[in-house]
Design a protein that fits this description.
The protein is built from 2 helices and 3 strands. The protein is α+β, with helices and mostly antiparallel strands and 76 residues long. The protein has one domain: Mth169, Chain: A, CATH 3.30.1280.10. The chain has a 3-stranded antiparallel beta sheet, covered by helices on one side. The N and C termini lie close together (6 Å). Pathway: Purine metabolism; IMP biosynthesis via de novo pathway; 5-amino-1-(5-phospho-D-ribosyl)imidazole from N(2)-formyl-N(1)-(5-phospho-D-ribosyl)glycinamide: step 1/2. Its main location: cytoplasm. GO terms for molecular function: ATP binding; phosphoribosylformylglycinamidine synthase activity.
Length: 76
Protein backbone atom coordinates (compact mmCIF):
# COMPACT_ATOMS: atom_id res chain seq x y z
CA UNK A 1 0.00 0.00 0.00
CA UNK A 2 1.20 3.51 -0.76
CA UNK A 3 0.33 6.92 0.60
CA UNK A 4 1.09 10.28 -0.91
CA UNK A 5 1.11 13.29 1.41
CA UNK A 6 0.88 16.81 -0.03
CA UNK A 7 2.15 19.49 2.37
CA UNK A 8 1.61 23.20 1.65
CA UNK A 9 2.04 26.38 3.64
CA UNK A 10 -1.28 27.66 4.94
CA UNK A 11 -2.82 30.73 3.35
CA UNK A 12 -1.41 33.88 4.89
CA UNK A 13 2.00 32.33 5.66
CA UNK A 14 4.80 33.96 3.68
CA UNK A 15 6.41 31.66 1.12
CA UNK A 16 9.92 32.98 0.31
CA UNK A 17 10.75 29.97 -1.87
CA UNK A 18 7.59 30.45 -3.89
CA UNK A 19 8.37 34.15 -4.27
CA UNK A 20 11.91 33.33 -5.46
CA UNK A 21 10.46 30.97 -8.09
CA UNK A 22 7.93 33.61 -9.20
CA UNK A 23 10.71 36.19 -9.52
CA UNK A 24 12.95 33.78 -11.47
CA UNK A 25 10.11 32.92 -13.86
CA UNK A 26 9.54 36.62 -14.48
CA UNK A 27 13.25 37.09 -15.18
CA UNK A 28 13.02 34.26 -17.74
CA UNK A 29 10.22 36.02 -19.59
CA UNK A 30 7.22 34.26 -18.01
CA UNK A 31 5.45 37.47 -17.05
CA UNK A 32 2.00 35.92 -16.60
CA UNK A 33 2.81 34.27 -13.26
CA UNK A 34 1.31 36.34 -10.46
CA UNK A 35 2.03 34.02 -7.54
CA UNK A 36 3.73 30.75 -6.64
CA UNK A 37 3.20 28.58 -3.56
CA UNK A 38 5.77 25.85 -3.12
CA UNK A 39 5.11 22.69 -1.15
CA UNK A 40 6.33 19.14 -0.87
CA UNK A 41 5.10 15.67 -1.70
CA UNK A 42 6.04 12.73 0.50
CA UNK A 43 5.48 9.19 -0.77
CA UNK A 44 5.27 6.40 1.77
CA UNK A 45 5.42 2.64 1.12
CA UNK A 46 3.29 1.18 3.90
CA UNK A 47 3.03 -2.27 5.40
CA UNK A 48 -0.20 -4.17 4.95
CA UNK A 49 -2.79 -3.00 7.43
CA UNK A 50 -1.60 0.60 7.68
CA UNK A 51 -4.49 3.04 7.59
CA UNK A 52 -5.08 6.62 6.55
CA UNK A 53 -5.43 7.42 10.25
CA UNK A 54 -1.88 6.12 10.77
CA UNK A 55 -0.59 8.40 8.00
CA UNK A 56 -2.45 11.38 9.47
CA UNK A 57 -0.76 10.70 12.82
CA UNK A 58 2.60 10.66 11.02
CA UNK A 59 1.75 14.04 9.50
CA UNK A 60 0.68 15.53 12.83
CA UNK A 61 3.81 14.28 14.62
CA UNK A 62 6.55 14.67 11.99
CA UNK A 63 5.76 15.19 8.33
CA UNK A 64 4.00 18.57 8.55
CA UNK A 65 4.39 21.55 10.83
CA UNK A 66 0.67 21.96 11.43
CA UNK A 67 1.11 25.46 12.85
CA UNK A 68 2.03 26.82 9.41
CA UNK A 69 1.35 23.93 7.01
CA UNK A 70 -1.70 22.00 5.88
CA UNK A 71 -1.64 18.54 4.34
CA UNK A 72 -3.75 16.11 2.37
CA UNK A 73 -3.36 12.34 2.20
CA UNK A 74 -3.96 10.06 -0.81
CA UNK A 75 -4.03 6.32 -0.23
CA UNK A 76 -3.44 3.95 -3.17
Amino acid sequence: MKARVHVMLKNGVLDPQGEAVRHALGAMGFDGVQGVRQGKVIELDLAEGASEADVKQMCEKLLANTVIESYTVEMT
